[in-house]
Amino acid sequence: MSATAVMAHLPALAVVVPLMTAPLTVLVNRPALVWRLATLSCLLTFAVAVGLLARVLELGPFVYEIGGWAAPWGIEYRIDAFNAYVVLVVTGVSAVAMPFARRSVEREVERDRAYLLYCAWMLALTGLVGIAVTGDLFNVFVFLEISSLATYVLVSMGRGRAAPLAALRYLVVGTVGATFFLIGVGLLYEMTGSLNMADLAARIPPIADSRVVHAGFVFIVLGLALKAALFPLHAWLPGAYGAAPSAVTAFLAGTATKVAIYALLRVVFTVFGARFAFGTMAFDVLLVPLALAGILVASAVAVFQQDLKRMLAYSSVAQIGYMLLGAGLVSEAGLTGGIVHMFNHALAKTALFLALGCIAYRVGTVTVASMAGLGRRMPWTMAAFVLGGLSLVGVPLTAGFVSKWYLVQAALERDLWWVAAIVLFASVLALIYTGRVAEAAYFRPAVPGGLPDRAREAPLSMLVPVWLLVGLNFYFGIDAALSAGVAGEAARGLLGGVS
Questions:
Q1: HEC secondary structure over 384-397
Q2: Three-state secondary structure along 130-168?
Q3: How far apart are alpha carbons 439 and 437 in whole angstroms?
Q4: From CA 320, how far away is CA 312, in angstroms rounded?
Q5: Reduced to 3 states, what is the DSSP secondary structure of residue 224?
Q6: Could you report the per-residue pLDDT of 69-96, keeping only the tens digit for each?
């Protein structure tokens, strides 16, 4: 196949590569070989994502028809700056986390189940990428179920009795969310006879006063809000992140909720349109308060957590609030801030969870108490954790600062100074909960004879992915031309309707 033909089929390859890898991992069933196969698949999918984004930035949005059937009868993949950006984030996180996973999975997952983890990982990646690239609402549901079912398996593979319970709770909540989403899609299909997003965007305005359309909007938004862990629909997330294997937690934290937020924004801005969502339905009246409540409450709860995986999980709920706050402000600066924060938070939070994975590998536990004296025993790991935490705080020269700068600017543009104040106050809370870890690691003595006292630095194969992400946090904090530039183009596309 020529290079031109490969470029023409990039949208399909983004889904097909991990999908075809999943059954191969089961057939191979040898942990070391399966890991190599999954790693190669992740790297190839990431290369495809880079190609997609480069093509969009050079030539603009484009459509890929599945099987040659034109929409709305056939399924199409519509690629623009927004979903190409999201695919890059998802595949990039997977490509970085998979090399880390080998040693981590060997330590945390039973050897005879490791191939199942990699199979589920590939299916989750397939579903997440599929949600982002498809232009068909029912196809979104199909990929949503693929990713969700695989994710439930990934969470359940953590050791201890908490993992199956967390997976079950996640399954129940996820099923409710998927059901709500499907009901909403069914209502729209009843009124329009179409499932294609671009076609729906044209058919909904003439019937926008219909109560069925209103109900469809509510069901779809509620279903995706559950999947995105929007406060107060977030109860499943701390348990799932806390119980899953370390590599899985890092992968999910950098991808799953980002894709759910993408789907929510795509439906709200592209299918229904900003005028309907924020005018007729007054969605911002609900979204902004919930986003701000999530930022404050989840940050405050994170301060008091002793388990660091749960601390970072509650931090993720707060960061989701930042992303949706930008959407609720309904401005180019606000949307740019929310979208670029999806990218920046994926860099920071994946780095932090991978650093915790290094600690779990050597220490066996990731509580605040177990951090005592670890700054001397694991200097590179703890330095990476502290530097990654600076991005959560939003310290200048980190990627997190860029996001918060856009959000504060958007709030001040609308004369919402109190929103800007809340964003800044929540940054102080982030400083407190990340500072607790640094204080324990660098200023508390190790317990004589305790696990931290016997700990040593993590293997290089685990440290390199962590420091790669830490370095990117600072690179995109110093030069945000690419990350913020693509986010700005995506924001303009959303505010302008269907590309």
A1: HHHHHHHHHHCCCC
A2: HHHHECEHHHHHHHHHHHHHHHHHHHHCCCCCHHHHHHH
A3: 5
A4: 12
A5: helix
A6: 666 667 888 889 999 999 999 999 999 9
- Residue position matching structure tokens 């080998």: 102
- Cβ neighbourhood burial of 206 (10 Å; 0-12, 13-18, 19+): exposed
Q: How big is the chain by its Cα radius of gyration, in Å?
A: 22
Tell me if 73 sits within 8 A of 117, measured CB to CB. no
SS3 329: coil
Domain ranges of the chain: 293-499
Q: What is the spatial distance between Cα 215 and Cα 252, in angstroms, rounded to a whole number?
A: 30
Report CA-CA distances (Å) from 253 to 23, 242, 394: 25, 11, 18
In tens, the pLDDT along 145-179 reads 999 999 998 998 877 778 888 888 889 988 999 99
Element (H, E) at 78: strand 76-79
**How far is the C-alpha of 296 from the C-alpha of 425, rounded, in Å?**
8
Question: What tokens were used for 170?
Answer: 């996640």
> pTM of the prediction?
0.91
pLDDT digits (tens, 9 = 90+) for 443-464: 887 777 666 666 788 888 889 9
